[in-house]
């Protein structure tokens, strides 16, 4: 059920385009949304889509993944085991400022007379491009073109190409390239718990500041977390017009100002190079040196080489990742199909920007497009983002799983603090330490352990990367399995079944419950897989098994206990309704009064006390429905349909993570109208601002969910048994075909689903065996193509 209106800007100024998000006019009322939508990043460094001229802006954000400041969490009433330290991603030094003055008249968008305006997120090239024709009050026409990139190839590097041409007159032009560190680099909002908490004072403290020739270097550090950031900028100006320049700097500010005698039609080309380096251990002197080494290399290469490497990277990304919708009719300009294609690429591009170079870090809930959720990493990554990365960019998926492994020491310590054996991964974190101050909807979400192990299993099955399992995964599986056995118990009231009490599932509107169905089902999967892996290593790799025993002090009796708990796991079931209740008491709660809840009172968490919500039968986020998707083989088709029909009217849509999952289950149960409705809501979550909060950052997990919706939902993909199988439905648009690639075991498969047939093509590799419905299909280099009919309307 959706309760939100779409808030998409007017189409004539934001036209649909398959490869670009286009802005054809400056609308101050959409400033914040566009800053998010047009943001650039590479997983390490992110910049919101603010104008180069230093404003106007809603949140002029520049973020580095994992760069945060700490603060003590203050409770009105303390209790044992509460999280102690808050962590918030910092808004670091802003290096992208380029101010323009023509005859001393500043170019400022709100006041400028614009004869032409075109700004676009170029998803094919990985750049933010802008073309402006400005007429000054004296009638001089000034062409301003810019191209900004955050490099995927050079992790620490961004660059801006900024070209000014006075078309019809002589003029005196000043271009001021500036770098600025804000005194207070975190904005907060106490009314919305999803936003970052504001720090009361200065966050970044000066360590070094200097300039030489056209280069400026500023270095600052946080006080509590002891992170240091060095930001270096360098500037190259090319023009046949006479010019001079002057550099200056203070502790928080650097400037290189070019004064040019502009001639009509003579271009003035400024290239600004931006470099960021961060560390918790290096001295400021060393970090500044690293920034300058990187800068020397980048300047010697020039902007065109940076751009060429960016375009090559993007070509390879789209080759592996592009999901295409193609209208088969003669009218190939049908707007709806173009809008769908634009939305698909927009979502996939932002996932790339959030994850590509996230090395030794995770993926923040908002990527690097805003400070909402404080830059924290959640279970969102493993369940919603990793499937896309596993099947398109497995190296990135591996990096993210290794990052989770590096949290294992803190996860062990957290489990011990909570009185458990094994490991308890943090609900929300940057450093690896639990940073959720509200335990009921945070720490109580034990399912995060099983979510990470679920993603680990999918990654290993899809890639065959048994070395990861041996070196990292097995140890994680042992420690998470230990926690489940320690947390649960065999209940006489449940006829000896293994029960898990006092937990919160994915649905945060039902907190600290007994036997949350999602948690129990995922814990069962975790226990089973841990036992399988340990037994596999014992039988086939005795050295790896012995190393695992040494690292974890594993006893054979533990594996037996895991198997017993999994086999006896309690899963709630209501005989009368023939559904799986979300938890033991879910059906005992009074239904929420949806009829008398105004649309402007959603999301409920902003307008109702948690206790008022916890007492009612209402759902923030798909819970049992999510379990039916992740563990599809555990649910017969009729049970899926009954559960979906029961839970759909109770789900508010307050979470951006619901629509994509509901679309998948709707497709699997044959309700294609709902599949398309929910699928479009997921696709347009950010482009149409469905939740009304895009200004705070992109919904990265929902974006990952759109890929799952297209491949698992409309594409009918299944991978639960380690083999790819497909039960295709159709494209989310009439008279269209759906096409997408997958990387499986190092080979590339492409699937094309038409109106009445599906094609499987082996694009790269030697031999791949898949299933089409119940039929086994073999693809080889000699016979790379297979065509099969599509069955319609079947529940699967």
Describe the secondary structure blueprint for this structure.
Layout: E1 20-23, H1 31-37, E2 40-41, E3 45-47, E4 62-72, E5 85-91, E6 94-102, E7 105-106, E8 113-122, E9 127-135, E10 141-150, E11 157-166, E12 171-180, E13 205-212, E14 215-221, E15 228-238, E16 243-250, E17 253-262, E18 267-279, H2 284-301, H3 303-321, E19 324-327, H4 335-355, H5 380-392, H6 394-406, H7 408-417, H8 447-463, H9 466-487, E20 489-491, E21 497-499, H10 517-540, H11 542-552, H12 556-567, E22 590-591, H13 610-614, E23 616-617, H14 624-630, H15 637-647, H16 658-668, H17 672-683, H18 700-714, E24 717-718, E25 725-726, E26 736-744, E27 747-753, E28 757-764, E29 767-772, E30 775-780, E31 785-789
Helix pairs in contact: 4-18, 5-6, 5-8, 5-18, 6-8, 8-9, 8-10, 9-10, 9-11, 9-12, 10-11, 10-12, 14-16, 15-16, 16-17, 16-18, 17-18
Please sum up the structure shown.
With about 800 residues, the protein is α+β, with helices and mostly antiparallel strands.
């Amino acid at each position: 059920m959706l309760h939100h209106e779409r808030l998409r800007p007017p189409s004539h100024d934001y036209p649909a385009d398959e490869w670009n998000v286009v802005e054809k006019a400056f609308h101050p009322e959409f400033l914040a949304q566009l800053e998010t939508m047009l943001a650039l990043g590479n997983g390490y460094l992110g910049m919101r889509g603010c104008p180069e001229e230093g404003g106007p802006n809603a949140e002029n954000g520049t973020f580095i993944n994992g760069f945060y400041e700490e603060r003590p969490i203050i409770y009105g009433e303390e209790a044992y085991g509460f999280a102690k330290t808050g962590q918030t991603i910092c808004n670091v030094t802003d290096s992208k400022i380029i101010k323009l003055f023509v005859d001393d008249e500043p170019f400022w968008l709100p006041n400028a007379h614009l004869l032409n305006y075109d700004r676009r997120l170029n998803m094919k090239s990985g750049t933010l491009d802008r073309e402006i024709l400005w007429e000054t009050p004296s009638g001089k026409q000034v062409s301003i073109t810019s191209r900004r990139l955050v490099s995927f190839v050079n992790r620490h590097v961004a660059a801006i190409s900024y070209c000014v041409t006075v078309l019809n007159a002589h003029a005196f032009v000043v271009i001021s390239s500036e770098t600025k560190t804000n005194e207070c680099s975190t904005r907060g909002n106490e009314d919305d718990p999803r936003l970052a908490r504001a720090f009361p004072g200065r966050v970044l403290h000066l360590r070094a500041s200097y300039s030489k020739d056209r280069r400026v270097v500023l270095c600052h550090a946080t006080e509590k977390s002891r992170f240091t950031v060095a930001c270096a900028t360098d500037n190259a100006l090319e023009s046949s017009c006479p010019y001079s320049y002057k550099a200056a700097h203070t502790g928080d500010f650097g400037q290189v100002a070019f004064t040019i005698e502009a001639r009509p039609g003579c271009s003035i080309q400024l290239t600004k190079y931006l470099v960021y380096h961060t560390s918790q251990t290096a001295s400021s002197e060393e970090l500044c040196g690293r920034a300058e080494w990187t800068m020397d290399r980048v300047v010697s290469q020039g902007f065109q080489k940076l751009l060429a490497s960016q375009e090559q990277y993007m070509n390879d990304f789209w080759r592996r990742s592009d999901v295409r919708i193609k209208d088969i009719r003669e009218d190939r300009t049908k707007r709806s199909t173009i809008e769908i294609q634009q939305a698909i690429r927009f979502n996939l591009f932002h996932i790339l920007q959030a994850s590509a170079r996230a090395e030794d870090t995770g993926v923040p809930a908002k990527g690097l497009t805003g400070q909402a959720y404080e830059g924290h990493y959640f279970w969102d990554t493993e369940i919603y983002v990793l499937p896309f990365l596993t099947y398109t960019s497995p190296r990135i998926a591996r990096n993210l799983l290794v990052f989770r492994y590096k949290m294992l020491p803190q996860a062990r310590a957290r489990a011990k603090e909570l009185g458990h054996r094994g490991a308890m991964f943090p609900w929300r974190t940057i450093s690896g330490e639990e940073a959720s101050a509200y335990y009921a909807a945070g720490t109580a979400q034990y399912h995060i352990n099983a979510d990470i192990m679920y993603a680990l299993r999918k990654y290993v099955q899809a890639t065959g990367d048994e070395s990861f399992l041996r070196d990292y995964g097995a140890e994680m599986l042992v420690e998470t399995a230990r926690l489940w056995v320690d947390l649960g118990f065999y209940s006489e009231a449940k006829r000896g079944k293994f029960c898990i009490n006092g937990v919160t599932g994915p649905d945060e509107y039902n907190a600290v419950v007994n036997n949350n169905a999602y948690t129990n089902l995922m814990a069962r999967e975790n226990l089973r897989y841990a036992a399988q892996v340990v037994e596999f290593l014992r039988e086939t790799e005795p050295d790896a098994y012995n190393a695992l025993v040494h690292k974890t002090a594993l006893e054979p009796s533990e594996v037996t206990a895991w198997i017993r708990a999994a086999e006896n796991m309690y899963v709630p079931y209501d005989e009368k309704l023939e559904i799986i209740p979300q938890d033991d008491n879910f059906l005992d709660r009074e239904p929420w009064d949806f009829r008398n809840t105004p649309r402007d009172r959603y999301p409920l968490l902003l307008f109702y006390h948690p206790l008022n919500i916890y007492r009612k039968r209402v759902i923030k986020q798909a819970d049992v429905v999510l379990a039916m998707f992740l563990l599809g083989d555990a649910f017969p088709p009729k049970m899926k349909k009954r559960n979906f029909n029961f839970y759909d009217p109770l789900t508010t849509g307050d979470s951006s993570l619901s629509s994509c999952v509901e679309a998948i289950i709707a497709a699997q149960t044959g309700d294609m109208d709902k599949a398309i409705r929910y699928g479009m809501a997921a696709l347009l979550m950010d482009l149409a601002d469905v939740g009304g909060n895009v200004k705070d950052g992109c919904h990265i997990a929902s974006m990952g969910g759109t890929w799952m919706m297209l491949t698992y939902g409309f594409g009918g993909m299944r991978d639960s048994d380690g083999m790819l199988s497909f039960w295709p439905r159709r494209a989310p648009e009439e008279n269209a075909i759906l096409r997408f690639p997958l990387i499986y075991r190092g080979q590339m498969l492409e699937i094309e689903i038409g109106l009445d047939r599906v094609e499987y093509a082996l694009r790269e590799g030697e031999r791949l065996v898949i299933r089409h419905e119940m039929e086994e299909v073999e693809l080889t280099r000699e016979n790379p193509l297979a065509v099969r009919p599509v069955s319609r309307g079947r529940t699967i």
